[in-house]
Amino acid sequence: MYRKAEVLSRIQLRQSTIKDWLNCQLLFRFRHIEGLKPSYRGIAAIHGSALHLAIHRLHQSGFYQNLAHVYERALSEVMELESDIPVRWKKGESVDLEQMKEHAHELLSGYIAYAENELAEILYSEVQFRVRIGGHELTGTIDQVRMNSNGDIDLVDLKSGMQRPHAKSLPRDWQLSLYAYALKFGEVLVGGQWKRPRMSVDRTLIYFLRAHERYKRNSKYGKKGAEKGQPFIACEKPVWDHTQFRHDLLNLLKMMTKDWPFPNPSACGYCSFHGPCESRGLFYASKKLDKLKQTLDEISKLQTVEEGS
Fold first, then answer.
1. Which residues contact 138 (CB under 8 A, 6 or more apart)?
2. Consecutive sets of 10 residues in the chain, 309 residues long: mean pLDDT of each?
3. Residue 256: its pLDDT value, please?
4. CA 271 → CA 37, 288, 308, distances in Å?
5. What is the pLDDT of residue 93?
6. What is the pLDDT at residue 144?
7. What pLDDT was estimated at residue 177?
8. Do the strands 153-159 and 203-208 form a parallel or antiparallel pair, or are they unpaired?
9. Spatial CB neighbours of 258, under 8 Å, sequence gap ≥ 6
10. Nearest Cα to 2, choosing from 20, 25, 19, 23?
11. CA 109, CA 106: separation in Å to the nearest integer?
């Protein structure tokens, strides 16, 4: 059992750390407190990171680039990170890589064709931030901050997962709230120097990249060749949200530093810590076996004494 000070000394308070705790407290303990490495890397996470990096490069160097080259270069860089951890391929490395490249070309083509993405002015892209809240320093990376074609400031989080986020969850999305709080009260790393934007955002947005997928056949949902939907999921961001977010986050940090982990079965489908999680059963069982062995030894001694008398 770790005490609060030891937990804080072992973890980095990043948005990814908090996300892991919210997904499963045991996953959080294994990865961030005990420092265990996952048994594998999933191709969905690799693909998502490569798409983020490719979009960042498109905004840096212009939309009229070879999309296949941009994605392949980004994918290669992502694959080199944590290269000591094996990748769990679904259909085999060559087949999966080819499908990832085809899918990336479809999404990136849709992204550059979406007029607002070219009209908007990107103020920050893949920018690191830091902000102090209640004596704790939180860090992370913001996908995009942009001034849209109407002149409003939008905070954008790119999502490449299969499930489309629901608009009702957006006002209380802790990750976007943390980004907005950091832009207002924290610092961002620009050109190797930390700067205070003092920026209030007008809207927070989730950009659902899979909306740029195209229907492969006619169906009740859409015609063949049409995109699957609207990529933007947006909500207004009033300034008083910062106060509520700060209160909620401090409560969350109090719970994170209490070492009372328990599993969340809903996260098992994509968790790469099955080994240490399942071995906990042996740990608890060994205690019971030791107690049973001790009891049997005591019974055996009593029987020996009775037989001697």
1. 13, 14, 15, 130, 131, 132, 178, 182
2. 88 91 93 93 96 97 95 97 93 96 97 94 97 94 95 95 87 89 96 95 94 93 92 82 91 91 87 85 58 74 71
3. 92
4. 12, 28, 58
5. 96
6. 97
7. 92
8. parallel
9. 4
10. 25
11. 5
Q: Which pLDDT does position 240 carry in this prediction?
A: 67
Domain ranges of the chain: 118-239, 273-308
- Three-class secondary structure assignment of the chain: CCCHHHHHHHCCCEHHHHHHHHHCHHHHHHHHHCCCCCCCEEHHHHHHHHHHHHHHHHHHHCCCCCHHHHHHHHHHHHHHCCCCCCEECCCCHHHHHHHHHHHHHHHHHHHHHCHHHHHCEEEEEEEEEEEEECCEEEEEEEEEEEECCCCCEEEEEEECCCCCCCHHHHHHCHHHHHHHHHHHHCEEEECCEEECCCCCCCEEEEEEHHHHCECCCCECCECCCCECCCCEEEEECCCCHHHHHHHHHHHHHHHHCCCCCCCCHHHHHHCCCHHHHHHHHHHHHHHHHHHHHHHHHHHHHHHHHHHHC
Look-up: residue for tokens 């079965």?
265
* pLDDT of res. 37: 92
Instruction: Tell the burial category of 202 from Cβ atoms under 10 Å away from its Cβ (0-12, 13-18, 19+).
Output: middle
First to last CA, the chain: 47
